[in-house]
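re: ur question from earlier - yeah i can do the single chain one, its not a big deal. heres the input i used so u can compare w yours
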Amino acid sequence: MSDTPTTDDNLPSSTRKTSNTWGKVLFVALVVAAIGGIWWFESGRLVHEAKTAVADQFRDPESAQFRRVRTVKNRTESKVCGEVNAKNGFGAYAGFVQFVYSPSWNSTVGHVLLLPKEGDVERELLKVIIEPCEPWPKD
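and the output i got, formated as tokens:
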């Protein structure tokens, strides 16, 4: 046995390059995982805020049922898009309605926009706001 300590200088150059490459790959993987984890956490928090705000728009917030809820992000902000169904004043479910939630909309407008049905004139006026949510998932 040799008394010389093993260092990277004593390893063949191909082993040093492989070791260095794997270190870089591991570092990049950790950074990507951390960014993905932060986005997942923020997305979950945003969806929770959206569901609470949307449910509060109805007479019976506890009855709100959600489907096709997703977070969309453009260059400047994140929005939550989805569909909600809640009981009306007669205690019956009224049918699913599309919604858009944005935490950046000011309080005079509110954070929630319940969308008119497809083909409605008002919906055409809202195209700029709902564009990040397009296309809406179908059954």
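The chain has a mean pLDDT of 76. not sure if urs matches, ping me
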